[in-house]
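QA checklist item 7 of 12: single-chain prediction sanity check.
[x] sequence parsed
[x] length recorded as 168
[x] structure emitted
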Amino acid sequence: MIQRGNCSALIGLGSNVGDKRYTLHLACERIQEQLGTIKKMSGYYATSAWGKVDQEDFINQCIYIETKLTAIELMQGLLAIEKELGRIRKEKWGPRIIDLDLLYFDDQIIHVDTLTLPHPYVQDRRFVLVPLCEIAPDWVHPIFRKTQRQLLESCPDNLSVFLLDEGE
């Protein structure tokens, strides 16, 4: 049996259908149970939709995990959790009960049919960069060689991103 060491990954979570916070909570539970150990979690952030804007606002969050899985295995696990929680893929950037994006996996650069790492839009999405900066501000993008903080400072996206209080 091959024993793998721990790898670090950053995952973006989002929801704009149903009980958004509860869905994000369930997704984190499933990730912890099935895919790896959550080391850090950002707060919940409210933001308007990105890409397809005529839909409900999102609640977004990012988590930092350690896993013994490969990047492809982790992505497969994230897709299985989306399906388990009721995600149905109808239209690109459309409403969704849960969206789990693998943003980074160590410093790996991967481009295959089923996975592109780092996530191709991370540097363009304020709703991703703000929670990433909360939990991993100094994580370096392996292509652009910039930290998440630097990417946020130059992010072209001007959508407002609001940290939610516990009761909101």
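[x] summary fact logged: The longest helix spans residues 20-34.
[ ] second reviewer sign-off
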